[in-house]
Design brief:
The protein is an alpha/beta fold. The strands form 7 sheets. A 5-stranded parallel β-sheet has the order 4-3-5-6-7. Helix 5 links the parallel strand 5 and strand 6. Helix 10 packs across helix 12.
Length: about 550
């Protein structure tokens, strides 16, 4: 049965409580093996308790509250509690630098920061001084808590001190109130703030529920992607609308293990996850994952393209991965493949109520209720046409059946010295099918041929070493097997092997590679690639690998 979608996030939770109060809303999986459950009744009661705690700090609708937490049940409860008070939720990227966090806090005029003791100790002096109040979600005070400033509170103590919900009832948000401000990933520059109204978020939820009517109360999913971005937050709302159970995992690096143990029927991810899943399923000893393949209905991939060959191979294991396409500026995904109507290699058909078209140069343009109107600090976005279509920057084509195929980014187009304009994303997707290649960035602007920076999978490089286990000839044999699916001018001629994965400042929280940053960081090595008299495989020297921040979120 198609779920009823109300006009605010708060009404969605109330509706789910009415429909299935005793069903399991979520399960939290910790590394110590504990897996506490919350029914929808429990979940809603906890949201109200948290709202009681926040009501002395969020005193009027529209106040901005930032959350600096890893993806967890607590994050979800805090988010709903703040919106219940009419607050505007902003998620901070846990991998961002203190300087970037401060910039976000100032630009969205946040008055409250919700975080935990770990982040507070790490960033306290710099980040927390940028807001009026800080609330720590930890249940107990630490030995050093007596030294905390007067503006720092513990959420559970605030909740226990509050006695009434009367003030909460007066500030329930309206459909046209701002629910959240999303900050873009910053792949091409400083992140931009994008306000979205409750009615836009709910329109996206309704569109996704209509596109995937197979999902219902018997289904389960995993929350593992950052909740600072809209992708995972929308999936959690769809889960609420359909009555699914959401499993929250503590460590996203354990996602493959969690998939095998939890065996969800539905999952969203980024291409890196599905590459790792394919590699793991090739191992016949991975019985849990193979069992999961028989249980899953389908999985959704976003953020970057997946090779058709990878999708086809996963299908042989029983896993249907459907690509979808969206942008931060539009709350509703622009196009999706559906379980009953999909085509590998495409991002699916346009998703109503979007209106989608191609410009004369092939750029994808979209408008509709989910589209933003402006970035923070601007009256009107400059990338809107005169008739209010958003210019996505993505190039695409439609086939005769209405499936959309993305062919590259306008700003990422490589113009070689021969005059060719080449989109690198499709080429990178093709070469990523090689068994030894983990990550790849294609380059060649102003050069006579394409080259690529490559990181290798752990099986192709020894532990603690830089030199690959495979020879240049073996690597070339792998990549040359891909060449037949590419035009001659699209084939990479020179490969630069890096002795480590790309680092924190080179990857966004959603695992997109920051092309401009990478090209800048490895400029000296790239120059060496093109100094060779003939195209070659070249291994980076240690001094060509810049020292960058360790510990990025990923699936290493």
């Amino acid at each position: 049965m198609k779920p009823v979608i109300p006009s605010t996030v708060c009404e969605l939770l109330e509706l789910r409580l009415q429909l299935s109060p005793t069903a399991t809303a979520c399960i939290s999986h910790s590394q110590n093996g504990e897996c506490p459950k919350l029914t929808w009744q429990d979940f809603t009661a906890q949201v109200l308790r948290f709202s009681l705690g926040f009501q002395s700090l969020v005193t009027k609708p529209g106040e901005v509250a930032a959350i600096l937490l890893t993806s967890s049940v607590t994050y979800e409860l805090v988010s709903h509690a703040l919106m219940r008070l009419g607050g505007v939720v902003v998620g901070l990227d846990c991998q961002a630098t203190p300087q970037d966090m401060i910039s976000v806090l100032h630009r969205c005029a946040a008055t409250l920061l919700v975080t935990d003791a770990t982040f507070f100790e790490q960033f306290g002096d710099s980040v927390t001084s940028s807001v009026k109040s800080v609330v720590l979600v930890d249940a107990v005070r630490s030995p050093t808590s007596s030294k905390l400033p007067n503006s720092v509170f513990y959420l559970r103590e605030l909740s226990h001190a509050s006695k009434t919900v009367s003030s909460i009832e007066k500030s329930v948000p309206r459909p046209n109130d701002i629910a959240t401000i999303i900050f873009t990933s910053g792949t091409t520059g400083e992140p931009k703030g994008i306000p979205f109204r409750h009615e836009q978020i709910m329109a996206a939820c309704g569109a996704l529920c209509a596109a995937y009517p197979e999902l219902g109360e018997e289904d389960s999913t995993i929350c593992w992607l950052p909740l600072s971005a809209l992708f995972q937050r929308m999936v959690n709302l769809v889960s609420m609308a359909c009555g699914m159970t959401t499993h929250f995992i503590e460590d996203p690096r354990q996602i493959l293990k969690s998939i095998g143990e939890i065996q969800p029927t539905f999952l969203v991810g980024v291409p890196r996850l599905f590459e790792k899943l394919r590699d793991a399923l090739r191992d016949t000893r991975n019985t849990e994952l193979r069992t999961c393949a028989r249980r899953t209905k389908y999985m959704i991939s976003g953020s970057a393209p997946l090779p058709s060959s990878l999708l086809a191979e996963l299908r042989t294991f029983g896993i249907l991965v459907l690509e979808a396409y969206g942008q931060s500026e539009n709350a509703i995904p622009i196009a999706v493949n559906r379980a009953t109507d999909y085509r590998f290699g495409s991002v699916g058909k346009p998703l109503p109520p979007n209106q989608t078209r191609l410009a004369d140069d092939g750029e994808v343009e979209v408008r509709g209720i989910g589209l933003f109107s402006h970035y923070l600090g601007q009256e009107r976005a400059s990338n809107l046409t005169s008739d209010d279509y958003y210019q996505t920057g993505d190039l695409g084509v439609f086939d005769q059946d209405g499936f959309l195929y993305l062919t590259g980014r306008k700003r990422d187009l490589i113009k070689t010295s021969t005059g060719r304009r080449i989109g690198p994303s499709r080429i990178e997707a093709a070469y990523s099918c090689c068994r030894s290649i983990d990550q790849i960035v294609v380059i060649g602007d102003g050069q006579k041929y394409l080259a690529a920076l490559v990181t290798l999978k752990s099986s192709a490089r020894p532990v603690g070493g830089d030199a690959p286990n495979l020879t240049d000839e073996e690597l070339l044999a792998e990549v040359r097997s891909v060449d037949e699916c590419l035009s001659e001018h699209e084939r990479v001629q020179a490969f630069g092997i890096l002795g480590r994965p790309f680092q924190a400042d080179e990857v966004t929280s959603s695992q997109k590679l920051k092309r401009n940053v990478i090209v800048r960081n490895y400029a000296a090595f790239i120059a060496r690639l093109y100094e060779a008299e003939t195209p070659c495989v070249l291994q980076a020297r240690a001094d060509e690998l810049l020292k960058t921040t360790e510990g990025r979120l990923g699936l290493e």
